[in-house]
Write a structure and sequence with these properties.
By secondary structure, the protein is an alpha+beta fold. The protein folds into six domains: 65 residues, Orthogonal Bundle (Helix Hairpins), CATH 1.10.287; 231 residues, DNA ligase/mRNA capping enzyme (D-amino Acid Aminotransferase, Chain A, domain 1), CATH 3.30.470.30; 127 residues, Nucleic acid-binding proteins (OB fold (Dihydrolipoamide Acetyltransferase, E2P), Beta Barrel), CATH 2.40.50.140; 85 residues, 5' to 3' exonuclease, C-terminal subdomain (DNA polymerase, domain 1); 86 residues, DNA polymerase, domain 1 (Orthogonal Bundle), CATH 1.10.150; 71 residues, 3-Layer(aba) Sandwich (Rossmann fold). Helix content is 36%, strand content 21%. Strands 14, 15, 16, 17, 18, 19 and 20 form a seven-stranded antiparallel β-sheet that branches. The chain has a five-stranded mixed β-sheet with strand order 2-13-10-3-9. It has a four-stranded antiparallel β-sheet with strand order 5-4-7-8. The longest helix is centred in the N-terminal third of the chain and has 24 residues. The protein starts with 9 loop residues before the first helix and ends in a 5-residue tail after the last helix. The relative contact order is 0.08.
Length: 715
């Protein structure tokens, strides 16, 4: 239960603020740098609003807070560009009353009397990626993303591939012009791209915004060109001279220079007029060819904008009025169970197709057994305890462009005679028992139901193969989901791939067979040769990739790195995990490693003691050689042998780059703070880890101090 800000003590406020700040920083990185948001816009906005409410009551907490940030860190690999004028973000409002208050605040700040006119523009808020275009002597010289508002990424070559962006401005334009706007992908383009990827068996993109962002930030500009991106112009940065004195006038000038501007923009004198426009655009939202998530209000007169100025990171003369999460009602036709790589049974609602926010929704995840009966992962009641049944009319919600979710059941429309859904006790694929594991820490049943079939379950086998060849594991080019499913389902022994080792014997089996893969539709001589080459490139593989590719439950990339660093070879790891004697000693030996607990240790041991797994690993080791290459750290490295933790938002490098740097210098990188931690490197927004480090008297430094410490040892 959330405590009202007015009831928070100073210590409570500081603790909650620190946790919120660290979470928001992580979400900013996921959204702005990685183009992979982990929560929807509504949940993010709620967290940001709570953060600011706490800061309003406890102003000292605002220093260094993500409430002052704009955008997020830039992506490594792009040349940084310092904006001549900062690219700021807008404050949000979410209700009609807040929008009306914005108008009232503007008029009051300007000292406008009842009869004075203060025009305000309203235009759709495009859900895309902000871009600044700099023209000198009417020629495009630089295109940069917003980045953190001060420094963005140089994407000039890619921007030149967008047809909406003029490479030159007409005669008469000022000598220096910075045009700012939004890069986006139309819904039609997005759907076509995903259809093509689906046909090729590749991973699909989640939404147009992230796809547009990723498409603009490609190393190969030709990929950007192929994606068919678009650009709306609506603002400006540095201008050697201003060609108009109003917001709307400047937008007209931009259109005259050849930029696309939004035709739904309008000017209004009253809050009533703005809200009417907000509702009209909202009614058109589903039919628009591009995604929007609100309407932006801006004071039209530029002289009035200058008088109003800025508050912290945002202008006082503008506000973004966000639309609420979109909802619709539809019927649950059926409930299917999908079995994943780890044996997790995930229920999926098959829905009567319904359009929500311009997207046709046919499926929605039901998460787990508890969610269906009306409980959350903590066992607390949700939906007032209403369970979900086949035939039910349900409320579907899309917040932003995330996966649709069922938020409620319309009991009044429940069919007579409907029955509760019985979650299966056996795997629907292999028939093995399915059960919920007991969490060792809480002594409660986990929310996920899992098949116990392991390698005998075809669903798990297929998903494990997909995991084995995935990007962070063996990363075998040419083996996507479609190809793995084809090889797995083949009845021809010379083509069939059921285990990881089968991948590496494919070429040899083909050489002895009359059935040639190159003659199979969808392949061909050239593609088969490339596939064999890609497979053979992975016969020598990094130990971390080998371990991660095995798909051991609870053992992710971090665990693979720690094991490789600690043991140095797969043989040493297997020796510790194999055999059915001295179980406690084996667990103890593994848990001595930083950040490896009892659950992970037992999972590693159980995997290696399973005869099926052990046999397959032996087959695999006949084909591949896992190697652990340790970068030789400088003899004078000040962090050799020390355990280092990174937390908060780093500016000069990504978290992954920082960890790799530390390891290259001979340090052990951990994800959590403990008594064994020697050094904590804390960036802005550091929260609970920083507090724990202080309580344990762990030495703490910031990013600049880190570079001062290790700089002399860097190659």
């Amino acid at each position: 239960m959330t405590i009202a800000v007015a009831e928070l003590t100073a210590d409570m406020a500081a603790a909650e603020h620190a946790a919120l700040a660290e979470e928001i920083k992580a979400h900013d990185v996921a959204y702005h740098r990685d183009d992979r948001p982990t929560i929807d816009d509504g949940d993010y906005d709620a967290r940001k609003r709570r953060l600011r409410e706490i800061e309003a009551a406890f102003p000292a907490l605002a220093k260094g807070s993500p409430s002052q940030d704009v955008g997020g860190p830039i992506k490594s690999g792009f040349e940084p560009v310092t904006h001549s004028r900062p690219m700021l973000s807008l404050d949000n409002c979410f209700t009609d009353d807040e929008a009306a208050q914005f108008v009232e605040d503007v008029r009051k700040a300007l000292g406008a009397a009842d009869g004075d006119e203060v025009w305000i523009t309203a235009e759709p808020k495009i859900d895309g990626l902000s871009l600044s275009l700099r023209y000198e002597q009417r020629h495009l010289v630089t295109a940069a993303t917003r980045g953190d508002g001060s420094v963005g990424e140089n994407v000039t070559a890619n921007a030149r591939m967008i047809s909406d962006i003029p490479l030159t401005l007409p005669f008469g334009a000022p000598d220096v012009v910075e045009v700012r706007g939004e890069v986006y992908m139309t819904k039609e383009r997005f759907n076509s791209l995903n259809e093509r990827l689906a046909a090729e068996g590749e991973e699909l993109y989640v939404n147009p915004r992230n796809t547009a962002s990723g498409s603009l930030r490609q190393k190969n500009a030709q990929v950007t060109a192929e994606r068919g991106l678009n650009f709306f112009a609506y603002a400006w940065g540095e201008m050697s001279e201003m060609p108009a004195d109003t917001q709307s006038g400047m937008v007209e000038v931009l259109a005259g220079w050849g930029f696309k501007t939004n035709p739904l923009m309008g000017r209004y004198l009253t809050a009533k007029g703005l809200l009417a426009r907000f509702n009209t655009i909202g009614e058109k939202r589903a039919s628009l060819p591009y995604d929007i998530d609100g309407v932006v209000y801006k004071v039209d007169d530029l002289a009035q904008q200058r008088r109003l100025g800025f508050i912290s990171r945002a202008p006082r003369w503008a506000k973004a009025h966000k639309y609420p999460a979109e909802q619709a009602q539809t019927v649950v036709r059926d409930i299917d169970i999908q079995v994943g790589r780890t044996g997790a049974l995930t229920p999926v609602a098959r829905l009567q197709p319904i359009t929500v926010g311009g997207v046709v929704v046919t499926n929605a995840t039901l998460h787990n057994e508890d969610f269906i009966v009306g409980l959350d992962n903590n066992g607390d009641v949700i939906r007032e305890g209403r369970d979900i049944r086949v035939g039910d009319t349900v409320v579907i919600q899309r917040a932003g462009d995330v996966i649709p979710q069922i938020v409620d059941v319309v009991i009044d429309k429940r069919p007579v005679g409907s029955v509760r859904y019985e979650f299966p006790k056996k795997c629907p694929v292999c028939g093995s028992p399915a059960h919920r594991e007991i969490n060792e820490k809480t002594a409660k049943a986990d929310s996920v139901t899992r098949c116990t079939g392991g390698l005998v379950c075809e669903a798990q086998a297929v998903e494990r193969l997909k995991h084995f060849v995935s990007r962070n594991a063996f990363d075998i080019e040419g083996l996507g989901s479609k190809q793995i499913e084809y090889f797995f389902n083949s009845e021809d022994p010379a083509i069939r791939v059921r285990t990881p080792s089968d991948i590496f014997t494919l070429e040899a089996r083909q050489a002895q067979s009359l059935t040639k893969l190159e003659n199979v539709e969808g392949f061909g001589k050239s593609s088969v040769a490339k596939l064999y080459a890609a497979i053979n490139e992975r016969r020598t593989i990094a130990l971390t990739r080998f371990l991660y590719g095995l798909g051991i439950r609870h053992a992710g990339e971090g665990t693979a790195k720690r094991l490789a660093r600690h043991f140095g070879s797969y043989a040493a790891i297997r020796d510790v995990c194999s055999g059915d004697d001295w179980q406690d000693r084996r667990v103890a030996a593994l848990t001595e490693i930083e950040d490896i607990g009892v659950t992970v240790a037992r999972s590693l041991i159980e995997f290696h003691q399973d005869p099926n797994n052990a046999g397959e690993v032996e087959n695999l080791l006949r084909e591949v050689s896992p190697e652990h290459k340790v970068a030789e750290a400088a003899a004078d490295s000040p962090v050799i042998g020390k355990t280092v933790v990174f937390t908060g938002s780093l500016v000069r490098m990504s978290r992954e780059e920082a960890q790799a740097m530390a390891e290259a210098l001979g340090a052990k990188v951990s994800g959590s703070v403990s008594k064994k931690t020697d050094l904590l490197v804390a960036g802005p927004g550091a929260g609970s880890k920083l507090e724990k480090a202080k309580s344990l008297d762990v030495k703490t430094i910031d990013e600049d101090e880190w570079f001062e410490l290790v700089g002399p040892s860097l190659p």
